[in-house]
Amino acid sequence: MRRLPAFLDPFTLALVATVVLAAVLPCRGVVAEAFDLATTVGIALLFFLHGARLSREAIVAGIVHWRLHLAVFASTFVAFPLFGLALKPVAPWLLTPELFTGVLFLCALPSTVQSSIAFTSIARGNVPAAVCSASLSNLLGVFLTPLLVSILLATHGDTGSPLDAIGKIALQLFAPFVAGHLARPWVGGWVERRRTLLSYTDRGTVLLVVYVAFSASVVEGLWQHVPLPALAAVAGVVIVLLAAALAMTMWGSRALGFSREDEITIVFCGSKKSLASGVPIAKILFAGHPALGMVLLPVMLFHQVQLMACALLAQRYARRAQATQHTAG
Hints:
Helix content is 82%, strand content 0%. With 329 residues, it is an all-alpha fold. The chain has one domain (27-318): Na+/H+ antiporter like fold (Up-down Bundle), CATH 1.20.1530.20. The longest helix is centred in the C-terminal third of the chain and has 37 residues, at 292-328. It is globular, with a radius of gyration of 19 Å. The two termini are 34 Å apart.
């Protein structure tokens, strides 16, 4: 049986179906309030399970690779925001203000966890370092993402209270994560044996938040305010962002003398942005914002593009490693 192409994986199809459902049948009133409460509970459960999965051994093993983590950190929280600011001069001609806000928000997000580790494993990179680096990126993102968003949006003519946002995110995301990690001695084994549970919780929560966000935006006239050329432009922007990040992490890690295995980890952890973390963070940062759906569009598009590009790149790395082994043998 042939597998679906990368751009037609089940989760991609589910995302598209969720957006279509929100466009045709948006939730309103009491139903929207109930769904909003469900997303809050789902997000807390998601981060609790992530905390329960992260072992102390992975944390300790990863700490020794501080140069690698610093490289990933610099790419995720320094280079990406600078890339976003570099787009500011051309943004008025390409994107609506809401879509550009979404691009800036995308640039401030932490790295992914599951796909970064999966692609690093496929490419035969440093998996323990990837586990630690991706997890650390998500923990730092709880505090750094709202701060970076505040700085980036201030340059874009918008302001907010980063301390207030950090407090809310810490309460809704970081606290359940810490609780899950502290409960690991009792629930860690159960969670490890049911890894698919985390996957379903992860994706189900994202789909629920996307549905609620797009429903609110559709009610406010989302598609009337987003012209087709702007959608095409934001797709082009996220492709350029990903290409720049991949090139920078690949050539940068080689210039800094990292091993091939560490290069792979830096490339896959330093070039990604987390949809699973981005959606709940956006829900908190842009609470009550009628254009939340438009803010999430760049993140959703980047998620699909990074999966397709990194799948091809991981296979290329794997083929090179296999060829090297055959040559050495």
